[in-house]
């Protein structure tokens, strides 16, 4: 059994499962000819990439901000305003502006919600503007998500600028604003749309070097099993050195589907859905070298209790694959984990995906896996940790070299936000963690699960907001905890910890806790102790609020 039980039976929480679909997807083929541009997925230290720019506005004059590699934000002379991958903050003299530049003539639809980081201050004004024409604006005063309206099917000319503007209203206090817009762009003359086949009917052409699963007997939307057709397509694709393409529609799978060195690609997570009909046996398993799963949604028609935590009832299980990619995938519901990486998998990327409503962890990396990047994902309302690195002593090799960056996580998830429970060389950067029931950031060696030691963990530029909700545990926003073994070289720098449900920061437990560094963090805390440091060698430098 690999999945741990972390939530006491006394823990009663209300999960908010949102059905809205905003945020996490990168540039992708959402439907024929339409490209999706996600601000967070396209975020770069180079302006004009993919095709975002980062600016400030005074009056009617837009000018570029400078990239600050220390904070990984675009800012004005090291101060306000700034723009990050999924947030912005206005200044006194300038508005914060994220700008998208149309790559060609066409039309756009804008999605993604706006919310304050907290409900204090006099709020911000969020404005969407096409060149100098205002399309939408709203006064945003709280953490409640506001959805822009009237921003669909907007015609644009090549080079048109869509500005996402954050104005301070009056005071700039508490004006941290979460806004990760997505622009769906359909070019005026789409080369991918409307290609006719010999019968004259319009057909969607699969990408080159893919075999279409419909050519092997899969039938969309007929509520009948497509498992045999998928297996036949995958077998043939392997012989021909190709991948398998799944067009728009819902397809049903009656048992585990194994991608053994063969990639599977959909037409986009909004339009291609794989539905597993056996809640005990429905994982998409990934093996081999270079295997990819992209551009689709995976869900279950029903789920069962987490029970023994079997991997067969995950949504996606990476079983020792190397150089794997999971990108632009929407995982909705699973009896156990959303995406589980095990079997000493290595050199993998999980990006621009969304994991929601699972009974165990959202994304879980374990069993000696290494060189794994988890970036630009959204993890909401999961039954355990949102993103966890876990090393059990019984597995031998510990997990190492994992990068967890620019993810947006929490939203009522039942246990910790981002957790390292055994492992070394883990970088946790630029993430947002909010509204988790246990600690937002959790670095631990757990005797109860017999997990490995922890060393070289760097936690930089994250925003941790209102975590540790659950009593009686009353976790702080960030917790370093050892009940066996040792923890050393844990560095927290440039993080924002705020609005903790019960207390600010903690380092405790009976294990051997060595050097823990807190440098240039900000703590805004109004409940309980700011710090509970009862173990460890604590190094504090230039922090604000503690
Ligand atoms: Ca304000
Ligand atoms: Ca079918």
TrEMBL record:
<protein>
    <recommendedName>
        <fullName>Alpha-1,3-glucanase catalytic domain-containing protein</fullName>
    </recommendedName>
</protein>
<dbReference type="InterPro" id="IPR011050">
    <property type="entry name" value="Pectin_lyase_fold/virulence"/>
</dbReference>
<dbReference type="InterPro" id="IPR012334">
    <property type="entry name" value="Pectin_lyas_fold"/>
</dbReference>
<feature type="domain" description="Alpha-1,3-glucanase catalytic">
    <location>
        <begin position="235"/>
        <end position="525"/>
    </location>
</feature>
<feature type="signal peptide">
    <location>
        <begin position="1"/>
        <end position="24"/>
    </location>
</feature>
<keyword id="KW-0732">Signal</keyword>
<dbReference type="Pfam" id="PF22816">
    <property type="entry name" value="CatAgl_D2"/>
</dbReference>
<dbReference type="InterPro" id="IPR006626">
    <property type="entry name" value="PbH1"/>
</dbReference>
<dbReference type="InterPro" id="IPR055149">
    <property type="entry name" value="Agl_cat_D2"/>
</dbReference>
